[in-house]
Amino acid sequence: MSSSGKYRALITGASGLLGRVVKRAFTSQSQNWEVLGTAFTRVKEDLIALDLTKENEVFKAVQNFKPHVIIHCAAERRPDVVEKQVEATHQLNVGATSTLCKAAAENNCWLLYISTDYVFDGTKPPYQVDDEPNPLNAYGTSKLQGEEVVKKAGNFAILRVPLLYGQIEKIEESAVTILWKNLQTTDTRKTSDYERRHPTTTDDVAAVILSMAEKKVQGENMSGIFHWSGNENMTKYDMVQTMGSVFGVSTDHVIADKTASSGAHRPFNSYLSSDRLEAMGIKPKRTPFKEGIKAALQPYVN
Ligand SMILES: NC(=O)c1ccc[n+]([C@@H]2O[C@H](COP(=O)([O-])OP(=O)(O)OC[C@H]3O[C@@H](n4cnc5c(N)ncnc54)[C@H](OP(=O)(O)O)[C@@H]3O)[C@@H](O)[C@H]2O)c1
Known about the structure:
Layout: E1 7-12, H1 19-28, E2 33-39, E3 47-49, H2 55-65, E4 69-72, H3 79-84, H4 86-106, E5 110-116, H5 138-153, E6 157-161, E7 164-165, E8 189-192, E9 200-201, H6 202-217, E10 224-227, H7 236-247, E11 254-257, H8 275-279, H9 289-297
Parallel strand pairs: 1-2, 1-4, 2-3, 4-5, 5-6, 6-10, 7-9, 8-11
Helix pairs in contact: 1-6, 2-4, 4-5, 7-9
Bound molecules: NADP nicotinamide-adenine-dinucleotide phosphate.
């Protein structure tokens, strides 16, 4: 603990979709934490600038702050971008993860690496934590390589999560909220009714991460792989239908597309079983999609 009687949490990617909510949870839902968030291009008043691909800077930041836990959220997570920027993605998703693991080990601190359901091929859901990964695209491959680095590095943990949405800075920020654009027009819009997803709020995931970190600093074994997922099974078409009903907007112009999505190859149904965390007593609420999407989109609805 620090002199203030608090544990220190370093959160990478704290300017991102998940990291910003994780930072808020550690600050507002618990009295136990002194929090430092890092950003790359979106540096704001309460975040420090840190390029995670610069090894010296990462070591310096970790040595200065001396965290008890590192929640490593930063990543390139847009599958179609990753296909075109494989090397740059590798530097961040794998290289920076390796650097952080070394810095964490040197400073005797626990690291939680946020990973993805895209490490699976989506043919045999639900996926347990010990099921064999088989990523279908470069993004899933890079995140799996990051996992391998973490597993080799020590007593660290991996949390795989599915498609996320929540408090956004622009509707394009989440692959869920961007679907609202389909309802901002009356032109015919084809929307995927093929791949199955389990949209999960960043608030729910942040609550899980906070519980894991609190258990860890209280001495519980918190190593290996964990999964957390919402339970509502939906296609993007289903999500748009729900948005329409929540905000009273017609979806008559939205056409169900029953074919596989174009772009990077994506798993059909990579539903993650949360059994391991639930057996450990970590069971924060699962926000119903209707409720979560209303909160996320409300600021963008006229
Ligand atoms: N979003 C999803 O649906 C989803 C689904 C499954 C798993 N995940 C996983 O969840 C984690 C968080 O994802 P997210 O959605 O929050 O991602 P995000 O919104 O794209 O945020 C990415 C974060 O990484 C930071 N970053 C990028 N390059 C960096 C660099 N060179 N050095 C330091 N920081 C850098 C960004 O900083 P700036 O913005 O300041 O540049 C940003 O804070 C990732 O590990 C991702 O793989 C996400």
